[in-house]
Each structure stands twice: as C-alpha cells, then as structure tokens.
Amino acid sequence: MHQLTIAELVKGLRNKDFSSVEVTQHYLDRIARLDKTYNSYITATPALALAQAAVADKRLAAGNAPALCGVPIAHKDIFCTIGVRTSCGSKMLDNFIAPYNATIVDNYVDSGVVMLGKTNMDEFAMGSSNETSYYGPVKNPWATDCVPGGSSGGSAAAVAAHLAPAATASDTGGSIRQPAAHCGLTGIKPTYGRVSRWGMIAFASSLDQAGILSRTAEDAAILLNDMASYDTKDSTSVERDVPDYTATLNDSLKGLRIGVPKEYFGEGLNPETAAHVEAAIKVYESLGATIHSISLPHTGLSVPAYYVIAPAECSANLSRLDGVRYGHRCENPKDLNDLYMRSRSEGFGDEVKRRILVGAYALSAGYYDAYYSKAQKVRRLIKQDFVDAFQNVDVIIGPTSPSPAFKFGAKSKDPVSMYLEDIYTIATNLAGLPGLSIPCGFVENKPVGLQLIGNFFAEARLLNAAHQFQQATNFHQQTAPGIE
Amino acid sequence: MQWETVIGLEVHVQLATKTKIFSGASTAFGAEPNTQACAIDLALPGTLPVANEQAFRYATMFGLAVNAEIGKRSVFERKNYFYPDLPKGYQTTQLAEPIVGPGFVDLELDGGRTKRVRIHHAHLEEDAGKSLHEDFAGMSGIDLNRAGTPLIEVVTEPDMRNAEEAVAFAKKLHSIVTSLEICDGEMSQGSMRFDVNISVRPKGQEKLGTRTETKNLNSFKFMEEAIALEVERQIDVLEDGGKIKQETRLYNGDTKKARSMRSKEDSNDYRYFPCPDLLPVIIDDEYIESVRKQMPELPEAKRARFVEQYGLSDYDAGQITMDKFAATYFEAATTFFKNTASQTGETKLIANWIMADLGAYLNRTEQRIDQSPVTPELLSGLVVRIKDGTLSSKIAKQVFEAITNGEGDADTIIETKGLKQVSDTGALEKIIDDILAANAAQVDGYRAAAEDKRAKMLGFFVGQAMKASKGQANPQALNELLVKKLNG
Questions:
Q1: Shortest Cα–Cα distance, A16 to chain B (Å)
Q2: What is the mean pLDDT of residues A459-481?
Q3: CB-based contact A456:A240 (threshold 8 Å)
Q4: Cα separation of A402 and A414, whole Å?
C-alpha cells in the first residue's frame, strides 16, 4: 500500500479498495517500525491520525467528499497545528503548542487529509543538511551515511522512505528543492504569495514559501490544488484564482521554449550531475521543446545577497523568542538581561545564532547601507534578470544542487560551503518565482535533481513540464535501496 | 546672560479604532490584563499582521487637519529592541515613508499673539503593552491589552519658545484629534502622551543647544511644570559652566521632580528595516478626497460658524470650540431656543454660563461636560428664565446650584422655592414705600444732595429694597421706581 502514489490513493479510497483508517494505520505502523533509522519525524500523531481517518471514511461513505479526503500526509514541523507541538526543530519551541492551525493545515483539514505527524527539519529552517535540528540529524534513505538535504530533510526522507505518501515543506532558499534533489523526489516551491504563510513559523518573511514534497509531479499538482489559497490573514498572499493544476498536466510540450542559463553550469558543478542535467534537456528536446541558451548575469550575487537579507529578516523574526511568554526559559534568571541572554543562548543552536548575529550586524547603524540596502538593490537586479529572460522563454532549466547528497559533517564546519549548496535555488526565492525539482539520474547511486523555474504564477506550466518528463522517464519511480 | 528656550514635541495619540492596528482584538480600555490580546498581539510564532484600514483613515484625517501632505506610499518598518512588554521584540512603526508629511498648526496665545508650529511628520505605529512592577513579589507582570493599539506619533519642529507655547500647542492638538473623533482624548488613560524635547541657548545664538527629552507627560499641567523645571535645570548647569548631557528624563507629577532615565550612550541601535510582512500602503487622491468629505468639522471652522450662526464674539466662539464636548453641549442647548424671538441674546448667555458657572462647577467636581448632570436642556431652561426677566442673575446662580443638586429644572425650582423675580410695580412700590418710611433721614440726605452725589447714595436704598425682597426684586424695575420716588 505504501508504494501507491497520492493519485492512486485517491482512486483506491473512492473505489473502496481500502479505507482511510487502513492506509493510515499502515503508514503509522511503518513509522513506528522504521523511523528509528531515518529520524524523519519529530512527532508522530497516531491517535489524531486515526481519528481524522475515521472521520474521512465517514465523509467518503457519505459521498461528495473532496478529492484528497482520507489521504494521509506529513507536515513539516514549521507549520502550526492545534494541540500538537510545533517545534520548528528547535529546543526553543520544544514545549510550544499553537492554539491555531497554519492556513495550509486548515486547508487540508477541510479536504479531509489525515496528518500522520510532524517532520524533522533544520532548526528554524536554517540549514541545507538537516544537521542543525535539535532533534538530531535525518538520514538520507538512499545512503544513510549522507544528509537528506535541508531544511525540509525530514519531509523528504519520510516520503523517500515511504513513511508518508507526500509531505508539506517550506522553501526560503531551496529548502524544498534541494532535499527533493537529494532524496529523488518531486518538490515544488510555488510563487511567493500563492500559498498563505499564516501559521508557518517565519525564517525570512519575504522569501519563505510553503510547498510540497511528493513522489510525482501529478501528486504535487493534486496537493497544490488544496494547499494554494488567497488568505486575508497574510498581507503578502495574492488574491488570484487557483487553477486546477491537474487539468494541464497532459498538455503537449511542443513549442515549449526552455532557457538554459549558462551561469548554472560553471565552476562548482559536479560534472556527472551536469551530464544528467544535459541529458534531461535532450529529453525535453525530444518532447518537442526548443532549447535556448540564456544568461542570468547576476546569478553570482544571489548567495551573498541572500545571506544578508535572510539573516536580517530572521534576526527580527526570532526576537519574539525571548523566554517571556512561551518557549524555552532559563532556570532562575537573575534579572531581565539574564533571562534574555540565557534563554536565547540555551534555546538556539549555533547556526541560528550565527544568522541572528549576521543579520543584526547587517542592519546596524553604519552598516545598513553597505549591506542591507545594497543586498536589496542586488535583489532587484536578480529579479530583473528573470523578468528579462521570461520575455523569450517559458521555463528555465538547470541543476537543483551542485552535487549529490554529501556525508554527515562534510560541510557543517564550513558554513560557506554549506551556503553554496543553494547556489542554484536561492535566486528563485529572491525573485519570488516558482521552482520545482524532479529526479533526472543518479550519481554514485544517489539521486540528481533537475530544476525547473517558471514565470510568476506559472505553477501549472512547471507541473505540466515535470509530469511530461516523468511520462518519458522512470527516475521518479526508483525506490531507495533497502526500503521495504 | 539671557537664555532662549527651544522646545519640540513628540506626541503619541492613541487612535479610537475598535480593533488593533494589526489584529482583530479590541482596543477598549480597562479590561482584565491580557484578555484583549490575541495570538498576534502575543506574537505567537507563525502569526502575521494585517493593517487596519481605519487607522489609515484616521491618520489621513489628522494629516488633512494639520495642513499636511499625505504620504501616497507609506511603509511600515521594524524598530528592534527587547523589552518584556514588546512581544515581537520589535515595534512596527514608520520611518522613511510616513503617512503624514510636513504640515503646521497655528496657535493663538494670550494677548492676541499668534504662532505657527510646524509639524515635521506624523507616523502610524503600534503601542506596546504595560509592565506592572507592583504586586508580583520580585517579578514584573506583563499586560498586553494595550499592545498593538494604533498610535500616531506627531513630531513637531523645534518651533516653541516657552511652556506657554508648548501647552497651547498640546491643547490645540487635543482639540483637533477629539474634534475629528480619532482619539478619545483621555489623557489620564494615556490616550495622549507628550515627549518634550528641551534645549536652551544664549539669546541671539542660532545654533541649538544640547537637548534632553522628558518622556510620557500625560497632562497639560505636568507638561508645564516639567518644562519649567527642566529649563531652570539646564540654565543652572550652563551658568555653572557645565554641559548638558543628551539624555531621556522622566518627570514625576506627584513629587514634582525629574530624573535621568538613560543617556544617549545607552540608547539602542534600533536596526530599522522595512517590515516584510506588510506591503507598502498606497493611497490615491480619490481616497484622500473621500476622507476629506467624511471629516467632522474642525475647531477653526466651527468657531467661524459659531460667530456667524449664533452671534458669539470671536473670543467666546474660540473658547467654546476649543473643547469638542463644550461645542456639542452648546449646540445642544441652543436647540431649545428655536421658537424664541431674541435668539442671539440667549445663545450668548448660554456661552457665558458654559464658560463661567458651569465650567467652574465641572472643574470643581471633576466632571466632563458631556457627562454633566446639568444637561443642555436644564441649562437652557435656566437661561430662558433669566432672559424673560423671571430670574435676576443673582437668583439664577441659586437656581443653578439647585439644579446641580438634582432638585429639578429651573421652573420647578423657581416654583418650589418661590424665587420668582418681583417685577410687579405694585409689589415693588410697597417695598420701596416701607424702606423710604423706615429711613427718613437718609431720604432727606439724598434729596438735599447734589445730583452727582445722588447716584452713589442710591445704592443704599437699592440694597435695602433688595434685602427686603429677599433678592427677588427685578433690579432694573427697582432702580427706576426708586429714583422716581426719591426724586418725588
């Protein structure tokens, strides 16, 4: 049953091949049995899941249930859930239970989707390897001595190990696409504003966007249909109709103009990864797409600009975690300063502290113009690169990540090498564009990701292009070795 | 040396919106601690702000009322600092692109002097909560009911030169925001709070002296006292050869003392940057015009209308319209005169009573005019009886006092106390005849006196007759009759 895609689960539940309670129990059993190896969940929620599944079965029996009714998925532990701890991978929120659901959680509750639990993640989504989690690292199902990518490493590993048929995730600089690449999954980060940020714990508010990790593009389309919505509780949410993303999956790619940015194939890209990406481009050519070499001249500035803007925003976003109202509070504070200093020193891990310090520095008097202001100017240039490029092409294609999943500890001592993991994904967040990663080959038996970047609100086109690729290839159907 | 004082103000005005600036929680004052703080006000993780349109409408009204440019694009920024009553660890405020740009307010001062005070800008921001330092045995309590209440912070240019001007500005501002009904004006509840920037310099010098900021003054009286104290302190320091330290000071209205709160060196680097959770707010001319059309009448326009419509003197109209509630009271009282012939005389009397007796009574009993037990109807009933000669002004004061004691309306009190003014010639003649008979010597003296001495001597007979009538004699009728009889 755990081999089934979301599309197949939807069909099976309708046909009464199995009940939601049966599917849910099956996954809960697998989590209980197998997740010790992967550490992909921070909190499994068996009782809640079975209760939700029972309700879903009633709705299915009554008829007229929404498409996703009864389908179980996992939520990244960055999304607030009523009555269930939302830790954001941090000691700081180890005791935090929100009295509200994130809007995307609510959307799925409305659809009758069952929550299996909350998945592991880099602390406050800061990391590219899931090594910064307070709850320990997550293992990559394809190579358990390697990282699954981050920050949505728990969601990726859970789906790759078939401990959930799909999972929600979030992406600030590549946190959906890079783990998708490393775990052989389909991962989509929608356009900024397409999905509500209400109830998603903020890392960098102008860059954060919720999305999906799934096994196929079709599954991503089905799930995005219900995740996307205009939300008056999020001022940056965009009031725009949500199309049926499944309706255009089978459109022909004939005449699709694909741009290949030369800057995405420069120094630092693993040659074998490059070869797989080039082969994938040939597949698109065979499907009728036309290939165009393009330039995104400011690509090289995206990592430096990102590592000013994201830390600046996070330095303020995380100020609310002060030990006063909720979250970790140190024992016996001497005075107010002691309360702040020890609560935050004890509650946050090193990477979070590093980014708060960098951000506070970049915003401080005398440095604001040199760092924050300049980074915002660069951000506009990066966005303009894409706006110009999309005058001539429909989709931009390149690698998701410079090389396959690396070993634990390989980059955790060198923040800059870790930051370069997201060199191809970060620009999309800075521009606010939708991006997607799909598997396109293997290097050393580890998956390689192909990144597709679309114009604003062109999720349907990205999913269409990804689905057509998956109709022509079988990389996405491979299962990690040792998965039962 | 002659010193000149330079004063600039920063005024926090709480906007009277029903809900908070970024959440749907109520802004009502006085609820149990933390009962009016929702997840957004508590800054729980994952919550997001949504700007309250009404706050923009009110700020726009204010901008129009102080002749200011309205910011077509206004941007919220985060002002970062840690404090337990600041739940997010930053205050959402405006800095580079505020809603209200440069404007001005014209003041009228004693002796007919006028003064223009320029407004540098006014911006929208959220209020913080309150730290409660009592009742928690070694700890502090936090009440977040106020957190997120919308404020406009009005920043003036350093245009005021003494406490009188600063207080006049403060009163004018109070009058504007209460007339616009964008603030309840309850200073004791913190609805308006004044920070006063003060420096002194040798008279004639252009360069400004080092300034201090005295924060959070919440009454005009404290403001006046605090300015006087700080000016004196600064001059003392300078005359002793010292230097003024740039610092923030606190004035205690109970002890009448001020102390330094923090010096500039201790001040925070607030690391402002645009709030990524809130998009820039774009306001167009159409919006501004729609706000302008909905604006309540401003004090100056009202003053002109009161002169025109009610025949008040410009001064009286200015006094009455200074306080929105007084103006409302006045207009309510005048509605009871619709059918009387000599309306102007009565409206003037109403104005006089509001400014004099009623004002004094309300001051003494610490009541607001809009909650006055002497309602506009009761006051107009009294004035009608003064105007028609039933009451002398002296008796009217007695009746007024009886009204304040809840003894009923003027007519009831006149009836039950028998206070009707005696104008009846027969009754007055009887009183006068008795007086003249009883004071024959004085009558002879009067008749023997020269014409120019007589006026003075007349007072004696008036006094006697008034006394005999228990004060109820119509003074004019009494005078006329007396003169007639004495001149015999």
A1: 38
A2: 97
A3: no
A4: 16
**Is the CB of A99 inside 8 Å of chain B's CB atoms?**
yes
Residue B431 sits at the vertex; the CA angle it makes with B429 and B435, to the nearest 5 degrees, is 115
Which chain B residue's Cα is nearest to A339? Answer: B84
CA torsion sign for A215, A216, A220, A223 is negative
Give the whole-angstrom CA distance, residue B314 versus residue A232.
Answer: 51
DSSP-derived pairing of the beta strands A395-399 and A257-261: parallel
Report yes or no: B6 and B201 within 8 Å, Cβ to Cβ: yes
CA atoms within 13 A on the CB side of B452: 0
- Give me the domains of chain A, ranges plus CATH numbers: 6-255 (3.90.1300.10)
The rounded distance, in Å, linking the Cα atoms of A260 and A230 is 32
Distance CA A139, CA A159 (A): 12
Evaluated on CA atoms A270, A274, A275, A276, the torsion sign reads: positive
Q: Whole-angstrom Cα distance, residue A77 to residue A75?
A: 6
Q: Which residue of A has its CA nearest to B39?
A: A99
> Are the beta carbons of B269 and A364 separated by less than 8 Å?
yes
Range list of β-strands (E), A337-410: 395-399
B271 touches chain A (CB under 8 A): yes
CA distances A166 to A45, A115, A217, A253, B381, Å, are 16, 11, 11, 26, 80
Asked if A202 and B271 come within 8 Å (Cβ–Cβ), the reply is no
Task: State pLDDT tens for residues A396-427.
Answer: 999 999 999 999 999 988 888 888 889 999 99
Contact of A313 with B276, CB cutoff 8 Å:
yes
pLDDT surpassing 90 at residue B459: no
Task: Find the residue in B nearest to A205 (Cα).
Answer: B276
Distant-in-sequence, close-in-space partners of B88: CB < 8 Å, separation ≥ 6: A316, A319, A320, B43, B78
- Tens of pLDDT, residues B362-410: 999 989 899 999 999 999 989 988 887 788 888 899 899 999 999 999 8
Distance CA A448, CA A185 (A): 10
In angstroms, the Cα distances linking A67 to A10, A108, A199, A260 are 7, 11, 24, 36
Q: Is A220 on the interface with B (CB under 8 A)?
A: no
Rounded CA-CA distance B124/B151 in Å is: 6
Task: Say whether A151 is catalytic.
Answer: yes
Mean pLDDT throughout A261-280? 96
Looking at the DSSP assignment, which residues form a beta bridge with residue B368? Answer: none
Angle at which helices A46-62 and A20-38 cross, to 10° = 150
- Taking the C-alpha atoms of residue B254 and residue B251, their distance in angstroms, rounded to an integer, is 9
Residue type (1 letter), B146:
R
Q: Does the pTM exceed 0.95?
A: no
Other residues' Cβ atoms within 10 Å of the Cβ of residue B243: 9
Round to whole Å and give the CA distance between A312 and A364.
10
Known catalytic residue: A76? yes
**Cα torsion angle, A99, A46, A349, A178, sign:** negative
pLDDT one-digit tens code per residue, B74-133: 999 999 999 999 999 999 999 999 999 999 999 989 888 999 999 999 999 999 999 998
Instruction: Set out the domains of chain B in order of their start, with CATH numbers.
Output: 3-291 (no CATH), 297-417 (no CATH), 425-487 (1.10.10.410)
**Rounded distance between C-alpha atoms, residue A138 and residue B264, angstroms:** 49
What the block records as the tokens of A462 is: 């990205």
> Is B130 an interface residue toward A (CB < 8 Å)?
no
B57 against B414, higher pLDDT: B57
Per DSSP, B21 falls in state S
Do A418 and A129 meet the contact criterion of CB atoms below 8 Å apart?
yes
User: With contacts defined as CB-CB under 8 Å, which chain B residues touch A363?
Assistant: 80, 271-273
Nearest-CA neighbor of A464 among A292, A251, A273? A251
Task: Count CA atoms within 13 Å of residue B267 on its CB side.
Answer: 13
Residues B42/A96, Cβ–Cβ less than 8 Å? no
